[in-house]
Structures are given as C-alpha cells and as structure tokens.
Amino acid sequence: MIKINNLTKCFGDAAIFSGINLNIDKGEIVVVIGPSGTGKSTLLRCINFLEMANQGQITIDDVTINCQQAVKSDILALRRKTGFVFQNYALFSHLTARQNIAEGLVTVKGWKKEEAHQRAQQILDDIGLSDKGDHYPAALSGGQQQRVGIGRAMALEAELLLFDEPTSALDPEWVGEVLTLMQKLATRHQTMLVVTHEMQFAREVADRVIFMADGEFVEQGTPAQIFTNPQDPRLQKFLRQVGIQ
C-alpha cells in the first residue's frame, strides 16, 4: 500500500536521516515517537514532497516516485493520495472554515464550488463544528482550527493521512478534542502516519510504534512491545525522560 525505500535527506553536508525504509498496510496506524530534532517532521514533509529528499523511492497506492527524478506531475499525483495535518494548523486566514475544507476539493480534485461546499459542510457536521462553517480561523479556538485542518485532509479521502505533531501548538484544554477526532478516524480504518509526543495516544491507538533517534528508526513494534519491553538503551532513556519507564 505505502512503501518508502532508502529515503535520505541532507541539509548541506549534514544528513537528517539516511536509508529510511517503511511499509504501511492499508488501514494501519503508525506512530513515530522520539526526541526533538531527530528528523521526524522532516520525514513526513519528504513523503509529501513539501521537502525534497536527496534520494529514495516513495510508493503510495499506484503512484511511485524516484525522489531524484521527480517531476511536477508526479508530485501532484502523489499529493492527491495524501492529506497533511500541520502542527500550526496552516489554515487560510482569509477563508472561512467551510472554504478552507472545500479549497482542496476545488483546486486538487476539480470539484465544482457548490459541490465542494456541500461536502465541506458534511465534514463540519462530522467533526462537531456544524455551526462554525462561516467562521474565519481567527474566531476559532486552537482545537477548532486543528479540527478544521483535519477536516480539510479528510475531504480529499486520501490513501494516507500524515499528522505532524497535531497537538503540539495547542493549549492543554484543546488537546483532547483533537485526539478524540483522530481516534474516530482510526475506527474507520483510515491509514495514518503520525508524529506525536502524545504517548497515551500512541499506546491506545497505534497499531505500530516507531522510535526514531539520530536520524534512524531505532526500534519498532506494537505499543506493548515499545512501552513495556523496550530493548534499545536510547528508547529506554527516552521513555524515562517522558515519565513512562
């Protein structure tokens, strides 16, 4: 379903990560944890070509791209298979919640504006923001803005949803509503790759947890394996630092 082979990203002479390999099955929820600055967010951005990897191959559904030979049409085809949820919401400030959700349907999928807005309202109903369609981002709480961001990704009915620390910019009282929506998506077998510091979410929702450190996948397994029987000293140290071990 999703295959990443030998993905490498460098900034100048410094390798952020090198030789990353990852397969994700349809409906699988993979959560990546690890210290800050180890390349987790950059990895997501490379998968969606928001950043260009230096080498590697990415396959999502029936689209395969060699990162060294990617052309604009290839990248657009791959992006049609993905939805990206940013840590800072990345909503268009001049568009309403409904317009933000509808925008990708119009520009990426070529829907007519009226149909896109009808679908956007259905999604607002689904994410518990039925009455917020005409509100601009500045009039929404952080949690509401992030739910709109998730709704925008949902609208594209993507093969893969990428979540880049979706709760890191939120005040504590808004974290729960975003995690609840992500749990709802999980029950629908939406394929997700999630970078997060929310260990409880990883424990409860993930099918597989990957610990990333020093630009590499150090250890991976089920939540039970990672959190109750960690093998690598770096993972053991990380779990102690976040209060789990």
What does this structure look like?
- The chain is α/β, with parallel strands linked by helices and 245 residues long.
- Helices cover 38% and strands 25% of the residues.
- The chain contains nine helices and ten strands.
- The chain has helices at residues 40-47, 72-79, 97-107, 113-126, 142-155, 172-187, 199-205, 223-228, 233-241; strands at 2-11, 14-24, 29-33, 55-60, 63-66, 82-85, 160-164, 192-195, 208-213, 216-221.
- The strands form two sheets. The chain has a six-stranded mixed sheet with strand order 6-7-8-3-9-10, sandwiched between helices. Strands 2-1-4-5 form a four-stranded antiparallel sheet, with helices on one face.
- Strand 4 (55-60) and strand 5 form a beta hairpin.
- Helix 3 (97-107) packs parallel to helix 5 and helix 5 (142-155) runs parallel beside helix 6 (172-187).
- It is globular and about 55 Å long.
- It starts with a strand and ends with a helix.
- The mean pLDDT is 94.
SSE arrangement:
Layout: E1 2-11, E2 14-24, E3 29-33, H1 40-47, E4 55-60, E5 63-66, H2 72-79, E6 82-85, H3 97-107, H4 113-126, H5 142-155, E7 160-164, H6 172-187, E8 192-195, H7 199-205, E9 208-213, E10 216-221, H8 223-228, H9 233-241
Parallel strand pairs: 3-8, 3-9, 6-7, 7-8
Antiparallel strand pairs: 1-2, 1-4, 4-5, 9-10
Helix pairs in contact: 3-4, 3-5, 4-5, 5-6
